[in-house]
Specification:
single chain, about 150 residues, two-stranded antiparallel sheet, 4 helices, 7 strands, about 25% helix, NAD(P)-bd_dom_sf, precorrin-2 dehydrogenase activity
Length: about 150
């Protein structure tokens, strides 16, 4: 894996799924300057607690291949393995896909980001264990909070 940061400003992202994992992915994307479609027959309660800007569309429907046609980035996060696999198959080679249920069908994995002062530190497990990633991130964040800033530019 090649670690990078993506500038998603003015890109189109589609999240297929409306549950807890989709909600977590959505929260990480909402402030990235991209347009976001979330496609799902049902939605996690978090999606309905806020009036989203025009850059966000909650599409309460069953997934269709046309839903991802304009996407640069596709996140597959339903609780239906058949739907997840179909989305991955429907994606074009030029689209980046994160299949949360199958590492082998993913082009990328999200990383947990820790913000400390003007630094961004990312922790990831190549899609193997979100719990382990969260545990390490918590330890790193706690350690950083104990430091007295001594780095000056």
């Amino acid at each position: 894996m090649y670690p990078i940061q993506l500038n998603l400003c003015d890109k189109h992202v589609v999240i297929v799924g409306g549950g807890k994992i989709a909600w977590r992915k959505f929260q990480a994307l909402i402030h990235e300057g991209c347009t976001i479609d979330v496609v799902s027959p049902t939605f996690h309660e978090g999606f309905s607690k806020t009036a989203w800007p025009a850059t966000v569309r909650l599409l309460q429907k069953v997934y269709e291949a046309t839903d991802i046609e304009a996407a640069a980035l596709v996140i597959v996060a339903t609780d239906d393995a058949d739907v997840n696999d179909r989305v991955a198959r429907d994606a074009r080679e030029t689209q980046w896909v994160n299949h949360t249920g199958d590492r082998e069908q993913s082009d990328f994995f999200n990383m947990l980001t820790i913000k400390h002062d003007d630094m961004m530190i990312s922790v990831g497990s190549s899609g193997q264990s979100i719990r382990k990633t969260q545990a390490y991130a918590k330890k790193i964040k706690a350690y950083l909070e104990t430091l007295e800033e001594d780095i000056h530019e």
